Amino acid sequence: MSIKVHHLRPAPGAKKDKTRKGRGEASKGKTAGRGTKGSGARRSYSAAFEGGQMPLHMRLPKLRGFTPPNKIKYQVVNVS
Q1: CA–CA separation, 61 vs 20, rounded Å?
Q2: d(CA 47, CA 56)
Q3: Would the CA dihedral through 6, 20, 24, 28 be positive or negative?
Q4: Torsion 21-25-28-30 (CA) sign
Q5: Distance between CA 37 and CA 52 in Å, rounded?
Q6: Both ends of the chain: CA-CA distance in Å?
Q7: How far is the C-alpha of 29 from the C-alpha of 14, rounded, in Å?
Q8: Which of 25, 51, 70, 71 could join 29 via S-S bond, C-beta 3.0 to 4.6 A?
Q9: Distance (Å, rounded) from C-alpha 9 to C-alpha 31?
Q10: Which tens digits make up the pLDDT trace of 8-66?
Q11: What is the rounded (10 degree) CA torsion for 19, 40, 59, 65?
């Protein structure tokens, strides 16, 4: 018998079921893995928050200067 793509299946234990948090007391309900008190339990952090480390947008240098909107563009003219 030859191996075909539609006969393949993932190895046992390779795929885990997604846990739906906050749906009943037994299945990670109530606090849903966030702990009881503190800011982590009460609100969500922004995507840019790096845990007290200096944020990326503050580590990078500022973009200095500007380009004038009506800048004169010169054409190269050969005299020979």
Answers
A1: 42
A2: 11
A3: positive
A4: positive
A5: 19
A6: 81
A7: 25
A8: 25
A9: 36
A10: 999 999 999 888 888 888 877 888 888 889 888 888 888 888 888 999 999 999 999 99
A11: 100
